[in-house]
Specification:
- This protein is α/β, with parallel strands linked by helices.
- It is built from ten helices and seven strands.
- It has a seven-stranded parallel sheet with strand order 3-2-1-4-5-6-7, sandwiched between helices.
- The protein is globular.
């Protein structure tokens, strides 16, 4: 399988790429930084392409997708994992909201627009968006980030309906709160956050699943289902638990 992943220089995306490569797949990565990928490229010669670019730049995404298709022959799966999560105090103005949506939502849209023609021509493909439980439940202080993840879910549903006849399926990845650069500012003890390697590798192993919502573990699937069933109740619970972890915040 040939994969294209945005946001894979570190965190969940990095281990998604690492697991995919170890399973014998070819991977193309687009990120604003690519320094951590050198070791992966050396360990898997000829099977990892690195594109240093920003998902907000639609033309840069198009060039990277075209180069990937030319090198690998086809793109079987595309994963939008690039993410921007501003600090709570930075999310109260319109500019912060636009910046988050530019990366989280429009980055996914750019990737989709670029890979769909290839997937239609080859008769199928799979597109994944990394979402978040707070996009279902809401979360106090994440008024820019959470809505952008909710919008991704709606985009995936619309595209799934529009592209079903072409054999292109859309899916959402639901990781737990994970120790990544984007979550570092949250007032939650690191011990309460998931290991990005466990999450990334677990998600990579489920990329062939037919489920619309994919989680790295059974426990995470149960927790995600609870969020869908009781969104506001779970949102209040998560907000209170976070406040208890950092009472001075």
């Amino acid at each position: 399988m040939n994969l294209f992943i945005t946001g894979a220089n570190q965190g969940i995306g990095y281990y998604l790429a690492a697991q995919a490569l170890e399973e014998g797949n070819a991977v193309s990565v687009l990120d604003v930084e690519t320094d951590r990928l050198a070791a992966l490229a050396a360990a898997h010669p000829g099977r990892l392409l690195c594109h240093r670019a920003d998902v907000r730049d639609a033309e840069a995404v198009r060039r990277a997708v075209e180069a990937t298709a030319a090198q690998f022959g086809r793109i079987d799966a595309a994963i939008h994992n690039a993410c921007l999560c501003p600090k709570v105090q930075e999310a109260r103005d319109s500019a912060s909201h636009r910046a988050v949506f530019d990366v989280n939502y429009f980055g996914a849209l750019h990737l989709t627009q670029c890979v769909l023609p290839h997937m239609r021509r080859q008769g199928g493909g799979r597109v994944f968006f990394t979402c978040s439980g707070v996009g279902i439940t809401g979360f106090a202080g994440l008024t820019a980030y959470a809505p952008s993840k909710a919008a991704l879910e709606a985009l995936a549903k619309c595209c799934a309906l529009e592209c079903a006849d072409a054999g292109v399926t859309f899916h959402i990845l639901h990781p737990p709160l994970t120790r990544t650069r984007s979550s570092a500012f949250l007032p939650v003890p690191p011990a309460f956050m998931a290991d990005p390697e466990i999450v990334g590798r677990g998600l990579a192993k489920r990329l062939t699943s037919r489920r619309f919502v994919l989680c790295h573990s059974l426990l995470q699937r149960v927790q995600t289902q609870a969020c869908y069933l009781f969104p506001l109740r779970m949102g209040r619970l998560l907000t209170r638990m976070t406040a208890r972890c950092n009472p001075r915040a």
